[in-house]
Amino acid sequence: MSLQAKLIITALALANGFFILELLRKRKLTESYTLLWFLVIGSIFFATWADRFLYSLTQLFGAIAPVSTLTLLSLAFILVMLIFFSMKISRLERVIKELAQRVALDNVRRPKGMQG
């Protein structure tokens, strides 16, 4: 991979790191997700600058260029994250449904004069 490509990937990863820190500072991202994202950023740095490792992965995957390997790894990561967040959303939907049912039952059980 060319030095220019490495520098661009590194700059994007650093910008992402600062963005993640800003989200954490504003309490829009929890510490556990921040740690996850920093592990991803570290992996990107490693895969970008460890030429032998990246070339070995490129040969293993049968890709033509190391950038193709990085793209494949990125797509695999996105797929895993989509599945993870789908599971989270499904769990939250169940919790919301249970809470709505409890509120409805509480409203039915109250005497008519106390509703409001």
What does this structure look like?
This protein has helices at 3-25, 31-49, 51-61, 66-109. By secondary structure, it is mainly alpha-helical. Helix 1 (3-25) packs antiparallel against helix 2. The mean pLDDT is 91.
Please give a handful of descriptors for the protein shown:
116 residues; elongated; 84% helix; mainly alpha
The main pleated sheet reads as: none
Radius of gyration: 23 Å
Number of helices: 4
Order of helices and strands: HHHH
Amount of beta strand: under 5%
Q: How far apart are the termini?
A: 67 Å
If you average the pLDDT, what whole number results? Answer: 91
Helix content: over 70%
What would you call the shape?
A: elongated
Low-pLDDT residue spans: none
**What structural class do helix, strand and pairing data support?**
mainly alpha
Number of strands: 0
Q: Quick recap of the structure?
A:
The chain contains four helices and no strands. It is mainly alpha-helical.
Secondary-structure map with pairings?
Layout: H1 3-25, H2 31-49, H3 51-61, H4 66-109
Helix pairs in contact: 1-2, 3-4
